[in-house]
Design goal:
The protein has one domain: Spore Coat Polysaccharide Biosynthesis Protein SpsA, Chain A. The mean pLDDT is about 95. A hairpin with a 2-residue loop joins strand 2 and strand 3. Helices cover about 30% and strands about 25% of the residues. Strands 5-4-1-6-10-7-11 form a seven-stranded mixed β-sheet, sandwiched between helices. A two-stranded antiparallel ribbon has the order 2-3. Strands 8-9 form a two-stranded antiparallel sheet. It is of the alpha/beta class.
Length: about 220
């Protein structure tokens, strides 16, 4: 099967300017998903979708291919789906039609390649998508408008496990993305990562936390 990893990385970022190429433990942030994808034996191509030449140059130094993204797909409110569809259409123009698409985010630097491989295997085995998640241990004491949303106060150990998407990666079949226009399908496999591996870089504090975790070998 043909498997491509696509990493969206636009130049504009508000909370952390130039976030996708910000240095983290001596390497630009975008290098982490590139290296994770490159380490996957199942992944045949690693592509960065960007409108930013500096990001493109940095990605090339880590041997990623570049797909030039039009400016209208690099706005603050642009969702990921049309960016992925555009990238796959560009690949098809060059004669390459992937069977499986791996969506990776530069903002999740702690994802390891074995998780990606596990997700690909689930899709190869029959799932139409796979999603990285981590256990959500804080969902059972929620309040809204001054009222508790839970009926009974429980200890954490008594609550059934639930999982939340951690934003590290999504894996889908070609048909799920291009025909159903979705990044998840009806049959989705969950790839459970550790909470400490699920840092999503959105604020300067997240970046500092990631530095600490990397320094400790997480």
């Amino acid at each position: 099967m043909k498997v491509v990893a696509i990493i969206p990385a636009r130049g504009g970022s508000k909370c952390i300017p130039r976030k996708n190429i910000k240095q983290l433990a001596g390497k630009p942030l975008i290098s982490y998903p590139i290296m994770a994808a490159k380490s996957c034996k199942s992944v045949g191509r690693v592509v960065v979708s960007t409108e930013d030449e500096e990001i493109a140059d940095v990605a090339r130094t880590y041997n990623a291919e570049i797909i030039s993204r039009p400016a209208e797909l690099a706005e603050d409110e642009t969702p990921t789906l049309p960016v992925l569809v555009h990238a796959v259409k560009e690949l098809k123009k060059s004669g390459y039609k992937p069977d499986i698409i791996v969506l990776l985010y530069a903002t999740a630097p702690l994802v390891e390649s074995h998780y990606i491989e596990e997700g690909i295997k689930k899709v190869v085995a029959g799932a139409d998508s796979a999603v990285s998640v981590c256990e959500d241990t804080r969902n059972y004491k929620l309040w809204k408008n001054g009222k508790p949303l839970f009926k009974k106060r429980l200890n954490r150990q008594s609550v059934k496990k639930v999982y939340r998407e951690n934003g590290a990666f999504y894996i889908m079949t070609y048909d799920t993305l291009m025909k159903k226009r979705s990044i998840t399908g009806k049959k989705t496999g969950l790839i459970v990562m550790k909470p400490e591996e699920s840092v999503d870089i959105d604020t300067p504090l997240d970046l500092e936390l990631a530095k600490v975790l990397i320094s400790k070998g997480i």
